[in-house]
Design a protein that fits this description.
This protein is mostly helical. The protein has 9 helices and no strands. The longest helix has 32 residues.
Length: 177
Amino acid sequence: MPLTYASYLDLEKLLALQKPRSSPPEHDEMLFIIIHQTYELWFKELLHEFEKIKSDFSAGDLFGAIHTFKRVRTILKVLVAQVDILETMTPSSFSSFRDRLETASGFQSVQFREIEFALGYKRASTLQYLKPDFPEYQRLQQLLHARSVVDHFYDFLETRGAQIPADLKNRDVTQPN
């Protein structure tokens, strides 16, 4: 079977992922789901871009890192702009399906925590909200102990002759920087 737009993007699966829980259906629940799924896709891309930035800094490629930071900035603008769409939902519309979410909350976004950790805003207490046998727990645990984008930037500066204070170079990477 030849590759098509739909098959390359796996659209059949992607478009089947929106599963409103309200019955009868509440119109704005679909919007709510799509907005949050889109956030998670952009979070995935941000994490991908942060790895590129760390790699660029490690390779001494400042211009590559700057280019990727510009992309990150643009993605963040899109994320902020999505709030405008979400704000078209009235409080009463949200209330019409909020109870179907039970205890689910955006606070539970593991990728958002991964972004925080990748940028150096680390708090081990974040892990207490996940069970140790969840794959997400392992990912966060790895990022907690990994060097952040900021740490890679310090390394880059040091290779360019900057004097990085010892407390920054030798800091506990599991703590916020």
